[in-house]
Every structure is written in structure tokens, then in C-alpha cells.
User: Fold these one by one.
Assistant:
Number 1:
Amino acid sequence: MKLPQIVSLSLLAAFALAAAPDAGAQDLKIAVADIQAALNKYYKTNSEIKNIEEIAGTERAAVDERVAALNILNNKLGELEKKVNDTSLSEEARRGALSEAQNYVAERTGKLRELEEARRAGSEKVLQARQAMEQRLVEDVKKVVEQIAAEKGFDMVVDKSFLPRANKVLVYTSEKVPDLTEDIIAALNKDAPPEAAAPAATGEQ
């Protein structure tokens, strides 16, 4: 799982801003923040990713077990096919091999269904776990953004990390527009235990 773009575009697009509804447009105090950078440097992100990797690893192991069992069956079928086609064997021996092979074919069909179901269920489980992880991380960041915006008196905080990709209106900000990214990262990590390492900073893709 790549660290950049941890959170899906749809979640970040929905996150976009914290605003005071009654402020006049001409009096709005606006700031920007790189929400993706904050997520990348949030200390909880590492542990959340590790949890997803553990789930994915468990599901892969279950699939690998079924693949191994299927390979054993395929090897047995290959051996039986050789017997069926071996004209040096008696007719009775070849018929016996054919009958045994037919039983293995039926068993293989069932194991193929089990394998596909394991793959489907595993992918769904990992996807659901990832979506839940993304939701938790975004909620944490959102709370911090709202708190900092309220403390500093900002009416709107615009996420500058994803809006340009989503073809939104943020195409330029001057140096006069405050950037709250570092404040958000500091607030997210203020209660981080000493052993919790934040993810390494990475560039956008």
C-alpha cells in the first residue's frame, strides 16, 4: 500500500472546508491546508496501515492455501492423464486411472469455486477495512482543522492537496493566504507516544 494518497479522493473532496455560515463574503478569513501531507505525517497512519497489511496478509495466506491444494490436485490429474494415455498399460489399468481422474476433476471444480470465493471475500474484507481506516483518519484531521480554524478565527479552510486534481476552483493562492498544514500536523501528533513513528514525508503523485 503506497503511503501517498492514503485517503480516497471522494473522502477528501467531501472534507473540503470548515466555514462560518453567517460571515459576509467580503469579510471572510480564508486559509489553506495540505490535508494529504497532514495524513501522511499523522502518527496513527502507520499503525492503521500496518493493520490493513495484516488483514491483507491473512487473506492472502488463506488464498495461498487453496492454491496449494489445487496444485496438488492438478499434479495428480497430470499423473493420471499419463496413465490413461499410456498404451503399455492394461485396458483395466487405464480405465481405473480415467475413473479416478474424473473424481479429481469434480473435486477440482469445487476447489476452484472455493478459491474464487476466497479471493472475492478477501478483497472485499480488505477494501472495507481500508475504507473504515480512511474514515477514521479523515475524521481525526477534520476535528483538528475545525478546532484550529475556530481558535485562529478563520471562516474557511481549503484543502490544497486534492482540489486541483478534482478540477475545483483552487488554482492559485498568494503568500498572504495562511497555510495551516504544520499547525494541523502538530496538533494531530501532540499526544503521540514516544515509540510511535510518523510516516516518512513523501511527494505527491
Note: The longest strand covers residues 30-33.
Number 2:
Amino acid sequence: MAWAVTIAAFLASAVEFVEAFTIVLVVGITINWRSAMIGALAAAVTLAVIVAIFGTAIVRYVPIDILRLVVGFILILFGLKWLKKAILRYSGLKALHDEEAIFEENMAAMKARGEDISQIQPTAVALSYKSVLLEGLEVAFIVITFGSNSTSTGGIGGIASAAIGAIIAGILVILLGALVRAPLTRVPENTLKFVVGIMLTSFGTFWMVEGFNVSWPFADAFIPILAAIYLLASFAFVMWLRSRSSVVAKSKSIAG
């Protein structure tokens, strides 16, 4: 299941890296790139220490069944939260996440402060550090949880598989951003979040049930089946919400 862990970590991490990169880009363009890079690199070092310490401790000292039960439950909560937002967005009840709008909003706020951009700015460093750290903590969580629950590679090898996916996602986002020097608006983030929500919920369900010492039919091969079930259920919810909102809109127009 190493490949599944790597792919899941790649997709989930890509979402977080896109969001973090947008803030770093704002800092670099509006103030200076030295401040942006210092903050981002400091956050990356902090995250590396967190993963190295807590990732290893979790694998070595927490019983695997308890870990699967707790982490599975947490992943289900994360996955359902992402799925809820994705369903509401695709049903038209919630605005789509617009990375370009976020970029422009942050840029306007930083320009309004009128800071001196000729030197390294502590405020800019802190903003870059905070954004990378917060989004990176979610990446670290993804690496640790997916990796430590990998049954095929097991233990530290599982974390390595998840870390590979996260590292590849980070490199691709940085390279793409360096090439276009603009918000990554062409990355289908809403679709990516929908897919990641499905994957988080599927993995969480699989591991939580295994935490109760229940064996799944077809073992790890049942994960794609779970993903298909959640995908069909989500599609059904989107269709139902669209039809319901359409009926409500028609009734309001008639009443008006």
C-alpha cells in the first residue's frame, strides 16, 4: 500500500502547499523576497524537526491498533469536513475557493501598511513563517498519520513513503510558482480538495475499523471500494442539493 500512501500524501500536501505559497508570494512581491524566503525556510526547518521527533515517537511507542483507531477517527473528521465544503461548492451553495482573490486581498492589505521594503522586515518574515508553518503542520500531520498507518511498508518506512509524496508536491508547487510568478489559479484546488476529502475519509474508515480488530474483505484492496462508495454518495448529495436549491429558487420567483 506504499503507493497509495504516497499518492494520498501528495494530493493532500499539494493543497496545503498551494495555500502557503500564495502568502509567501504576496510577501515576496509586496515587501521583498529575502523576508519571504527567510520566513519560509525557518518554518521548513521547524516542520522537519517536528516530523523527525514526533513521527518517530508515534511509530515506536504507540500500539498500532490504538493508533489506527484514533487516527482513523481524526481522518474521518477531516475528510468529512473537506467533503462537506466540496459538496456545498459544487452544488452552488458555497462560493468556490479563489486563490487569485486571496492573493489580491493579501497584497492590498500589505500595501496599505506602507512598510519600508528596502530591508528585511520582521513583520514580513513572521507572516511568511506563520503561513508556511500552519499549512506545513497540516502536511506534517498528513505525513505522520498516513505513514505510521501504512501496513505494507510499516513503521518508519511508511512515514518515508508519505514524506516522498509530500516532498514531491512541495517541489512541484514551488517550481510551478517560480515559473509563473503568480497565484496558482490554474491548479484545480476545489477538485483536488474534493478528491483528498474522499481519500481521507476512505483511509480513515479503513483504519478505524481495523483499529477494532475487524478484517476488511480483500484487505487493502477494499480502500478503492470505500472511495467509490463515498464518491457516489457525494455525487448523490450534490445532485440532491442542486435540485433542492432549484426548487427553492423557483418557489421564491413565483411568490415574488
Note: Residues 2-246 form one domain.
Number 3:
Amino acid sequence: MYAQGHGVNQDFSKAKLWFEKAAAQGLPQAQTCLGTLYAHGQGVEQDFSKAKSWFEKAATQGFADAQTCLGTLYAQGQGVKQDFNKAKSWFEKAAAQGERLGKAQFNLGVLYYEGLGVKQDFAKAKYWFEESAKKDNAEAEYNLGIIYAEGQGVKQDFAKAKSWLKKAAEKGNAEAQEAIKKFPN
């Protein structure tokens, strides 16, 4: 409640205090929240090493959100040496559990789309973007629109491209809102 400002004034210091109490009892959700506070510098000085430590505690307990966060640190080289193989491994663990927001699936799609730590593979990128889009991830929907518009690993299909871009645009994705203007009504 304190972290989100639900029913109380937002106060990251108080949120940290409560997260620490729960994290000390081994609760992976609280450990992940502490990692997030450190990753974003909310109520604490930004410290990716501490974020990594908290994410690892929760990730090794099998908590998908923490696995996604840890994978992101490795993908971006924040607090750790950039390592796309480790990022992929953590994203795969989270995706295998059906990570709830589709971020792990989206990030796997990006790795395959860009060829980061893996052989570039548009078919695999499309698969992971579709898995993420099933969870209403607007970024995945945008990327699917681009894949169909450009015919990357699929037959070029402007109707499908427009459909995906429209879904992303309706969720407020600015890139999709701009890209969809290029299609006739």
C-alpha cells in the first residue's frame, strides 16, 4: 500500500520497512519488491547490486516476477556483467511458469528478434511475442504488427499488421499509434 500509495500517502521508506520484515521471513514477493526499490532508487539510493541480491533470493525460490527482473538486469548489464545467455535462462524459467504480465515472454522475443545471445530467429521471436500478447502486452502487440508489416519470418500481411498495431495503439503504445497512421483505413 505504501509503495503504490493505495489508501495512504505514497512512502517508499515505509514500504521498504514492511518489505524487509516480510523478506526476512523468506517471502519472495517482498524480496522482489525490495529488489525493485533498489533497481529504481525508490526510497533508497539506486543500487543494482542490492537489487540483484534481492531478485536472486526470490528467483531461486521459483518466483517468476523475480526471475524476469533478474533476467532484465543481465540483459541490460545493470549491477552485473551483461550476459544474454543468463538473461535468456531466467526469462525461460519465468516464461515456463506463465509469468503473469508477459514480460519474460516479450524479452525472449526481443532476444530472438535482435539475435542477442542467440541466433536471430524471427519465427521464435514471433512465437514469444504472441505468448506475451496473450497477456495483453502492448509492446509485444506492436512488435507483432511490425513483423507482419515487414514480413519478417512470416508472409507479409498488412491486415494482420494493422490489427496488432491497433491493439497496441488502443493500450496507449505511442510507437503503434504512429505506425498505424501509415495504413489506409
Note: The first helix runs from residue 12 to 24.
Number 4:
Amino acid sequence: MAAFNLSKEGSTKTLTHVRPLEPGDRLTRVEFERAYDAMPGLKKAELIEGVVYMPSPVRYESHGLPHALMVAWLGVYSAHTPHTGVGDNVSVRLDLENEPQPDALLRLDTAAGGASVIDADGYISGPPELIVEIAASSASYDLHDKLRVYRRCGVQEYLVWRVYDREIDWFTLNEGRYESLPVDAEGVVRSQVFPGLWLNRAAMLEGDLAQALATLEKGLASEEHAIFCQTLRQRSATP
């Protein structure tokens, strides 16, 4: 269905046609946002390297459940870490050709040294420190086009849960390249950007949120997390 916007020029009303978004459209970010806003029933669309992507309907086990588990994990961390914020399916303005809508993200407040801001339109503008995507497999664009965009735009850490492959990849940005974070002897991966954000990979892959949060609680009780919290408070207090 075509979408129209009413606008006023002097005393005369005009109809401005906005063509609905279609997968594969090549648009600027301004054109993309205009079309997205004209489709209020649309739940998710992304602009990656100037190309529109519109994911299929979301299934529970392959997307909805792992998505919820990740948001819960990040939410608990943020609740115990000042000047951090969690985002769930929120659009991010990265540059003029890229406006992804990550499944989840964790960012630092600008006053605490974060690289992104909440702009005048209410969008996140700039790279959040951590982005999380739920992908079907390694063939997904999350591990190809999106990965290149996130790397180029300076997203410091990128986590991809490959559901069908039963694998979680967690990358950290090092000298312009993404490198995999190490897994310790207990199967735990630890964020370098957010001290204390510990991931029990096996528990998360099994959907055992209780065990995943038990591991996270150890990270939250660590000295590195306490120091990080103190640092964030000091940063935000500095004029």
C-alpha cells in the first residue's frame, strides 16, 4: 500500500508520495527513515551499506528466545553498572548509508566516555560500545555485511549468537580488526570494554539463564567491575 504525507505550503495542502520500503531498495539514510516512518506497522527494517534489509517473521526458538536471554543478561549487568544503557531492537544512525536495528546493544552514557549520543530526534547516533545480533548461521549477513559496517564504524565489541550452528562469536576491535575474545578454562568469555560482563557460553547456548546469570554475578562481584564503576562515576562527574 502506498503511503502519503500531508504537508503545508503557505495555505495550500499538498500530498507527498512516499514509496513503501522493499527489501533490496538502495536508499540514503534520509530516504530510508522517511519511508520507515510512513509504515507504522513495520516492526523491523535496516539500512546496511545503502541497501534495505527486512527480516522474515521471528520464530520463538531460533530468535525470540535467544534474543530475550541476551537482553536479560545485558539488563542485569546494566542495572549494576552506572552510566550504561541497554537497547532492544533500536535503530542506530551510524553513517549516511547505515542504520541497523540491532537485536540488543549496551552503551556508555556520553558523559561517561561513550562514543554514541542520543540525538535531537531520539535516535542513537554513533557506535554503541557493544552490539548483539541473533543470527541463523554463519551465512547470515550479520557475519558479513553488518560485521564490516560495525568494524568500520568503530563498534568496540560485537557478539553474534549463531543459533543453528550452536555457537556464540564475541569479537573485540583491535587496531581496526575484529578479533575473537578468549574463552577461559571454565568456558567463560569476558568483555574487555565492560569489565565484569562475563558470559557462560555453554549455559547461554542451553538456554540456562539461571546459570548464565550466576556466572555474571561473579563478574559483577569482581574487583575489575568495582574499579570500572568507580571510573565511570568519576568521568561523569568531570565537567
Note: The longest helix spans residues 60-79.
